[in-house]
Amino acid sequence: MMLDLNEVESFYGDAQALFGVSFSVAEGEVVALLGRNGMGKTSTVASITGLLTPKRGLIRFQGQTISGQPAHKIARAGIGLVPEGRRVFPNLTVRENLVATAIPRPDAQVSWDLDAVYDLFPPLIKLRGRMAANLSGGEQQMVAVGRALMTNPSLLILDEATEGLAPLVRDQIWAAIRRLAALKLSILVIDKNIDALLALAHRHVVLEKGRVSWTGTSDQLADQDFRHRTLGL
Prior knowledge:
Blueprint (H helix, E strand, L loop, with lengths): L2 E10 L2 E11 L4 E5 L6 H9 L6 E6 L2 E2 L5 H7 L1 E4 L11 H7 L13 H7 L2 H5 L9 H13 L5 E5 L7 H16 L3 E5 L3 H7 L2 E6 L2 E7 H4 L2 H8 L2
Parallel strand pairs: 3-8, 3-9, 6-7, 7-8
Antiparallel strand pairs: 1-2, 1-4, 4-5, 9-10
Helix pairs in contact: 3-6
């Protein structure tokens, strides 16, 4: 199993955010993490990536326990994060952003370097010398995805990667994600575009008030009556 969460409980101070969250992502699988705002999606991502330390439960990555480890160690273990809000380095160029956190992995199934990222996002070729602060939101998102890929992750986490983007750029990001899925990269994706996720994800996990309320397939989630009535999506 690529990623396995078992009864994870996380807190912000005394406020509990996650209540016994359990789900998994298999090798080469795309899993969508769904739920309305404030239901625990970002807290789950923070717990996986070491930005939030679970008080109870276990998180395993490729068979090794990572819960409680610092974020930089988890990233080096092979988890790449495209954070909500992009968070590129504004005073670095596109190229400098891409190489800033790069981690070569000779044993990686697919090796990501500058040429591979430019092939995935051709607009970045002409922009490689431009400061990230001077990019559009869509261009910054391409940089954010490329930067995560340059760590050569075994698991890629995308937290609202298409939020706030123009339709054309959204389509480019989704096309890139589909290409990554075709390469059998394990992906955990959070997004509000249910239709796009139905076409992409193998399984869906719905969070409700910090708990897993439902897990199922795209065929099940495609039923709009079920989706609205049971899941509130």
